[in-house]
Write a structure and sequence with these properties.
mainly alpha; Four Helix Bundle (Hemerythrin (Met), subunit A); 6 helices
């Protein structure tokens, strides 16, 4: 039963992430991104990581996506501003990437159903559980990438506001 739920959630996540790329409307693309993040949060629940699932919903699907939608609405992009489609090579490499991603997904599902060839498994006694190990890693080993991501988000917001102000 767990494999079936995982498979359904994985398919939903992959399909929604492909729809993020394929949508011409940026608002619809952002909504598909929210659906992708919700399905990823449900996958975290399957991994017995409820804290990460809640953070995925609150931070990414909630705060960050509201911010993205705000920036999209602030820019007020019109269809004529996109210009003609000139990216045929980009479309080819995108389709190639999706094909490789699907091969990887089928391989992962096959290993999950039929078992792995290696005998090494992570026992629940050695796996870190709870918020404390996550916070310890986040604020020690991964502090610089964490702060870098927040600075990049801030720069993106300021850049979007500056671009919108120039047009008015």
């Amino acid at each position: 039963m767990e494999i079936l739920i995982f498979s359904i959630l994985a398919i939903v996540a992959v399909v929604c992430s492909i729809m993020v790329i394929c949508q011409k409307n940026p608002v619809a693309s952002a909504l598909f991104l929210i659906a992708t993040m919700v399905s990823l949060a449900m996958l975290f629940l399957l991994l017995n990581a409820p804290f990460l699932a809640v953070i995925q919903i609150i931070v990414y699907a909630g705060a960050i996506m509201v911010l993205f939608l705000f920036v999209i609405m602030l820019l007020n992009l019109r269809r004529d501003e996109f210009g003609p489609e000139k990216r045929r090579a980009q479309r080819f490499f995108g389709i190639l990437f999706v094909f490789l991603l699907l091969i990887g997904m089928v391989t992962v599902i096959e290993v999950g159903i039929f078992g792995s060839k290696s005998t090494e498994t992570v026992s629940e006694a050695t796996a870190p559980a709870g918020v404390e190990p996550l916070a310890q890693l986040l604020f020690t080993k991964y502090l610089f990438p964490f702060e870098l991501a927040s600075v990049l988000l801030l720069v993106a917001i300021v850049g979007a506001v500056v671009m919108a102000k120039r047009r008015l």
